[in-house]
Every structure is written in C-alpha cells, then in structure tokens.
Amino acid sequence: MATAIEQIQAAAANWSIEVTPTGATKIESFRDCLNEGTTVNVTFLPGTDPADTIAVCERLHNDGMKPVPHLAARSLRNADQLDELLTAYTSRCGVEEVLCIGGGVDDPVGDFTATMEVLKTGLIQKHGIRHIGVAGHPEGSPDISDDEIAEALGAKNELARAEGLDLYIETQFCFEADIVLDWERRVRAAGNALPIRIGIPGPATIKTLFRFAQISGIGPSMRFVAKQAKNVAKLMTVQSPHLLIAGLAEGMAADGDCLIRHFHFYPFGGFARTATYAGAIADGKIEMLPKGGFNVTEG
Domain residues for 39? Predict the structure, then answer.
C-alpha cells in the first residue's frame, strides 16, 4: 500500500498553474520557475484586450510551456472573433488545449451567453483542438443555479461522447477536501464521466485568500476563510494548502473510481512561489506532520 507521501506525490503529478496577462509582465522568463512542458492557463478577464492573452500564450510557447488560453463565452463578440482568436492561438502559440468558461460578466458583450454555445459552434474542433476544459463548481456558483449547473454538465458529457472530445472539468479554487470529494461523488453518481482538475490556492496570506474568496463568491470555503481571518494576528501569515492537498490525495487513493486526476494552482500574485511549491510536492519533497498535512522540505 502506498505511503501518505507517495499518495500525495501521485495526486500532485502533472499539475498546472494559472497566470494573468498582468501577472505575466512580472515574469522575465517562464523557464526561470517552470519545467519545460508545464501547462499554464492564461486568463481572458472581462474588459481586457484579447491580444494580451495571445501575447502571453506566445511567450509561454516560446519558453517551452503548454499555454491554455481561457475562452470566456460572455466576453466574446461573435463567432468571427472566436475564429480569429483560435487562428492566432494555434498558428502563433502552438495551442492544443483551451479552457472554455462562461466568464464573470452579467451582460454578455456579444452573441454568446454560455459555454455550450461556444462548444456547439464547432470552431474549436475545426482548429484541431480536442482537449477542452470546462468549469466545475464544487460549491455552486453565484452566476448560475445548481439545477442549471447540473443540466450544463450533463450536456457537456453528452457532447464529449457524441464528438469524441477530450473534455475535462476544472474547478474554482477550494479549501476543504471533504466538500470537494463529496461533490465529485455526487456528480459522478449523476452521470459525470469527465476527468477533473481541482483548483488549489497557492501559498498566500489569509488576507489575500479572503479577498479572492470574496471576489469569487464561493460558499462554504468563504466561511472557512472568514473564520481564519477573524484572527487579526494571522492575517499576514502565509497559509499553505497542505491539508487540502493531503485530504484530496487520501480520498483519491481510497476510491478507485474517483475522477479527480490533477491539481490546478491559483497563485494569487505569487506565481514563482506557487510554482516552486507545486513542483516540490510533485517531486515528493515533503515530510508528513503528526497532526495531519505536510511540510515542503525543498524548493
């Protein structure tokens, strides 16, 4: 039977990480903090210029990484713009994978209101991209009801089967393993067969985590962080997601049918620090703690 360290190392293999175009300006070379071939998601934030996302993807490609641009449905004008973006991503940036999301915009800027509308254009497939991420919501979403989430997930599973697409679910960042594992069991029981990447908050202060949790509107985890934030003395203390990762790894190892495959790290402004942290765990450079969780020993 695998040791706890081996379980964690296996669960943390093939991790991915996120970067914003603004955050990328602070990184001189991605090679300085990432191994070649690392998967890096590039955000397409509301109101920003798509050219910024393209430029970061091109940098990542030139640095030997695998860029995964966000396609935010409600921030796209129309199918023509989507086609132009995909042309740039594939011809200039070597893109072979995208993350298709609704996008946090109350009023769509163009023709698309939901991820499925983008997927059904067939344009992503036309450009040879078969590996497509879609959003997952272990704690629900402030933008869409639970029933609508369930219906959309069923439709995405059906589309993947019908078109032979390599779809996967990528979730918002979470803080408690039990909530995530329970959600995975429930969506699996409801018919989900898509593999899952769980969002992990990188090492950050309680103050920073609280701010991002507020922005994202995540439920139980928001209460979890709010409880931690009440201790003013700890607000600027860097918190590690080691308990979350250890709990997820244990749950993944205990359930052979679990669909959680990888971790996706949200760096919250500390890209290099988070990349080093994720890499150390994947390399097994950790020591278990008596009261649960672990410490990173190198990196």
Answer: 4-203+240-282
Shared domain check, 75 and 208: no
Whether residues 187 and 198 share a domain: the answer is yes
How confident is residue 104, by pLDDT bands cut at 50, 70 and 90?
confident
Number of domains present in the structure of the chain: 2
Contacts of 75 (CB under 8 A, 6+ apart): 44, 46, 47, 103, 105, 108, 109
Q: Are residues 227 and 251 in the same domain?
A: no
13 with 60, same domain?
yes
The Cα–Cα gap between 43 and 68 comes to 9
**Could you report the per-residue pLDDT of 22-31, keeping only the tens digit for each?**
999 999 999 9
Residue 293 one-letter amino acid: G
Residue 292 falls inside a structural domain: no
What are the strands, taking DSSP E only, across the chain? 16-19, 39-42, 66-72, 97-101, 131-136, 166-173, 196-201, 204-205, 238-239, 260-266, 286-288, 294-296
Q: What is the pTM of this model?
A: 0.92
- Residue 186 belongs to some domain of the structure: yes
Q: What is the pLDDT of residues 164-177, one digit of tens each?
A: 999 999 999 888 89
Is 148 in the same domain as 72?
yes
Give the pLDDT band (50/70/90) at residue 55: very high
3-state secondary structure of 277: helix
Average pLDDT, the chain: 91
For 248-286, b/e burial (b = at least 16 CB within 10 A) is: bbbbbbeeeebbbbbbbbbbbbbbebbbbbbbbbbebbb
CA distance 139 to 146: 9
